Amino acid sequence: MSTMQDLKSEIRNCGRCPLADSRNRAVPGEGDLSARLFLVGQAPGVDEDEEGRVFVGRSGKILGELLDGPGLSREEIYLTNLIKCFLPGYRRPKRGEIDACSKYLDREIEIVAPEFLIPLGYYPARYILHKYGINVPEDKSEIFNRLWYSRGQKIFPLGHPAILVYDKEARDEMVENYDKLRVLSSNCKWYEVCPMRRFNERGVLDDRWIETYCKGDWESCQRYQMEENGDPHPDYILPDGSLSERLRGHS
Ligand code: URA
After folding, report:
1. Is the distance from CB of 144 to CB of 129 less than 8 angstroms?
2. pLDDT value for 28
3. Cα distance between residue 43 and residue 38, in whole Å
4. Ligand 1 mean position to 59 CA, how many Å?
5. Under CATH, domain 2-184 is a member of which superfamily?
6. Which of 17, 47, 170, 223 is the most buried (most CB within 10 A)?
7. pLDDT at position 71, please?
8. What is the radius of gyration, based on Cα positions, of the chain?
């Protein structure tokens, strides 16, 4: 496995596709190499192409504001793009460009090995879901703002910050959607003492429950909500609120 430094230098000198002729600078990702959250934009804009750094232009400013909500800084996440070079006229990426460039994204993912992949916008989301064997819904609205889990990887696609450059009305909803990153940035505070952990360690509860709730969207866990509200609940209630006869037998 190459180091991130080797990979960045390979990206900066890349000539795998014709975008190499029109770009000023190819832009590798940056951030915490052991980040829990790994965000993937589409491609550098003109400012990124000038500076050689991800999300330093208008979209980057908006992304910074959206990350302020859940209290995250750029330094504690990893931030990159599906395509490492500017797409002339901000056009959509072509199939061949995605095929050539996604090799770099794959290697960044391998090095950082994040808990969550957070694709921003349609093309990164489509690539990432497909990479983990998920059938991409035709209805684009079914892709975003939900937690996917496949082949051991958690994926939470969000809308691209550039949407707010053109549609200011979408801001409140976007702020609310990005707030989920606050939840995803830590495990459930009850995890250590939760019976779900015990059942999982004893081999009677599938990892999926732990990954998608305890170490995923714990705020949506019915057990978490009952705990917070002081509502009594038996050990064999699952995170989705259903009762498990199997767990009842092991209680
Ligand atoms: N938009 C992106 O998707 N990525 C950037 O780095 C900048 C703008």
Report:
1. no
2. 98
3. 15
4. 6
5. Uracil-DNA glycosylase-like domain (3.40.470.10)
6. 223
7. 98
8. 20
